[in-house]
C-alpha cells in the first residue's frame, strides 16, 4: 500500500447515528453473493460484472421515490450479452431489470435481482434519408439525438423535460412524451421500427420483411397467443370502443392494448406493445424514428392568471389558435423556480394562488409566425391577466434568450420544487390526464383534495393535452406520514377515474406507484388481457416483475426510500440524474447523483456498520479521486447542485494538517515553485519520456497515485524564460499570462510565437496594446489549491492574486485579460469565498476578461484575416461553459478556418490541471466519444483555449491541439 494513502475513515460522518429502517443490511456488506458473481463472471467476463457493495448501492436509486437493491449489476456491451443474461436467468429462475439513464419517476429502473446497465455501451445516432428518419441506439439521450438531427432541420417527436439525460430506450419503453408530443408525436406514433430481444432471447427486427416468418418459427406459441387476444378484442365492440377512447387522451397506464387493433401480424402487434412496456416484454436494442420538421420561427409568452382554474380555462383558446405547447405552472411551482439560475427574483413574491401558462407557437416561415401571433393577440385580448410582479409582462416574444429562460424554469419543475422540499422528505411525482376540456374542473378538484389531506403540492403540466403533474413531499420514515400519503393516493385515483374518466399515468408509465390501481382504471376485462399478454410474452416472469402488473394493493408503499440529510450543498438533490451525461467519470466510476446516493446510504447506516465501512473504502477512488472537479454537474442541475465542490470538501477532509501546511507553504513560496517547475520541464525534455514514465510510475506506487502525476509524452516543453516586453502607458488592458502558460511552451513541433507573445502581438496589431506586469511570477489563479481542497493554500493565493490584480489594473480601471479559461474562471469567481472582507471589495472592482472574449470582441473587428486553413475542430472547455463564452471559441475558429466543427460529444476532458496525470484513465474515459468524432476525419487545425486541456485532447486523439489565439495570430500575421 502507498505510504501516504488517505484514511477512508476521514470521511465518516461525525454525527451519532442509529440505522434507518431501509438501510442496507450488514449481510450485504460483501456485495453480490459469491456463487452469483462467479457464475456471471464466467459467463460474461469480470469487466462486465459489478458486484461490490458500492456498485449495488449506487444502482439502487433512480429518480423515483423508491429504492430496491440489486443482487448484481451487469454492464452489457451487445445483444449477445443481453441474450446470455436472459438465458442464465431462465436457467436459474432469476429476474432481470434493464436500466439506462435511471430518470424514470416510478421505479422502473430498479430491480431486486440482476440489473443490466444498457446505457454505457449503447450510444449512437445514424441519420437516414436526409434526416427524415434516424436510427438511434437505446443509450442515446434525446438531446444528443436532436443535436444530430438539427443540421437537417428535423427533430424527434417525444420531448420530455428530462431530455438532457433520458435515453431513447427509456423514452420508448415508457412512451414518454413531453411538452409537445401529445397523442400524435409520441413514440407510439413516430416509431418506424425497432429491434428488440424477447425474454426467450429471440431477436426481432420489425423492419425485416421476413420478421413474421422467422418469429413464427422461433416462437409459435407466442404468435398464436397474440393473434388470439387480437381476435378476442376485435370480437368485442364495447371493449374495442373502450380501448380507442382510453387513447384519445394521453395514457401510459398498463400495456398498449390498441396495439392489437393497430397491428395485423404478431410482429406489428409486438412493435406496438413494446412501446410503454417498461422493460417487461423485452430489451429494446435499436430504434428507428420518423422525425418531424424543426420549425425555427418561435413566438412564446409567459402569461399570469389569478388562479389555477382560471389559467386552465384559457387553455382551449390557445389550442384553437394553433399553439404547439401550452404549459401550466401553479404558484408553488413558480416560486420554487426562483432557485433556477436566470429566473426573475421577484417570482418569489408571487401570491400562492397565482398560476401561469407558458404558450408557444412554432412556424416554418415568417408568414406563418405572423399569422400565429395575430391569432394569439386575439386570444390575449379576451383574457383577464394579472401582473403581480414587475417581471410579469404578459406579452409574446421572439427573443431566444427570454424563451430559453421560460423553458428552463418549466423543465426544472420536478427538480426546483423537489430541491425546495423540507430536508429529509421523500418526493412523489404524480402524472395524470383528463379530457382537455375538463382541465379547469380537474385543477379545482385536485387543489381541494390536496388541502383535505394536508398537502401543499406543486402543480404543473402539459395543459394543451389535459396532462397534469403534481409533487408531494412526505417523510417515508414516518409510518403516519406514509399512511397519509396512502389515503391521498386512494382518493386521487378514484377521483381521476370516477369523476373524470382520466388516465392515472399520462406519460410517466405505470411504474410501481400506480400498478395497484391499474384495474381501477381499466376494469377487470382489459386488465385480465394485460396479464395474459405478459404471460404469453414472458411466461417465466423473468423480466421486471411488479413494475406494471402487481396484485398487491399496497405495492406502491413498498420500497419507499428515506432521504437522510447529507452535506448542505447536496441535500436538495432529488436524484433525478440530469447531471449524469455531463459528468466526465460517468463511464468510469460514479456520477454526481451516485456520489450523493452513496453518501446517503452511509447516513442510513449505524455508526461503524460493515456496510458503511465498505462504502467508505470504495468512496475515496470511486467518488473523490475520480471527480474531475469541473462542476459541469452544477450547470446541468436545474437547481445548481455542485457535487464537484462537495468532492473538493472531501479532499480537504482527507488532508492531514501536515499536508495542508505544505500546500500553504507552496502557495507562499510559489515564485520559487514556479521557477523550479519550469526548470524541471526543461530538464525533462532532455531525459526522455521513457525514463520519466518509469520514474513517476515507481513513485506513484510508493507514495500515492493522487499525489504523484504520471509523466505523459504529450506534456510540452518549457516556455520561454522571459515574457514579452510590454509598456504600461499605452496599454488598454492588463494581460495576465497564467502560470501554466509561463511554465509550458507550445506543443512539440509547433513553430511560431509562444501564447504570451501571440496575445501581445495580436493586441498591438489591433491597436489595443496590453501590458504584462513585471511581478506576475509567483502569482496564480489559486485553482491548483482549490481543485485539490487545500484551503489554507487557496486562501493565500486567492488573496495574493486579487491584491496584485487590483494594483495592476489601477484599482479596476483597466480590464484584466487572462489567457486560460480555467484561470479566468478561478480569478473571476472561484477565489471569492476565500477572500478577506477587504479583498472582496477589491475583487468587486475588477473586470476579469477571458482572452477568448478579448480577442473576439476587441481584437478581431480590428484585424485583417489574411489566410485561413480549410477546417478546424474545436474543444470547448468546461470553464468556457461556466463563463458562457463557448461561442467566442467558434467565432475565433471561424476567422481562422473555412469550416469549424464542434463535436456533438464534446465535453469536459477531465484533465483538470493535473488530474489527467494523476488518473489518466479518467481523461481516457471522459474523452472517448469526442475523440472518436475527432479522429473519424482529418482537420487542419485543432483548437481550444486552455493548455492542459489541450494536452488532454492531444493524448486522447493523437492530434495536436493549440490555442485559438495562436491560430488567430497566424491568420492575421502581415
Please describe what this structure looks like.
With 974 residues, the protein is of the alpha/beta class. Helices cover 44% and strands 12% of the residues. The strands form six sheets. It has a six-stranded antiparallel sheet, sandwiched between helices. Helix 8 crosses helix 11 and helix 8 (220-234) runs antiparallel to helix 20. The longest helix has 22 residues, at 479-500. The radius of gyration is 29 Å and the shape is globular.
Q: What can be said about this structure in brief?
A:
By secondary structure, the chain is α/β, with parallel strands linked by helices.
Through-space gap between termini = 58 Å
- Based on secondary structure, the structural category is alpha/beta
Radius of gyration equals 29 Å
| Largest sheet: spatial strand order | 12-14-13-16-17-15
Total strand segments: 25
Instruction: Assess the beta-strand content as a share of residues.
Output: 5-15%
Quaternary organisation: single chain
* Low-pLDDT segments, ≥5 res: none
User: What would the principal axes of the Cα set say about the shape?
Assistant: globular
Number of helices: 40
Largest β-sheet summary: 6 strands, antiparallel
Mean pLDDT: 93
Helix content: 40-55%
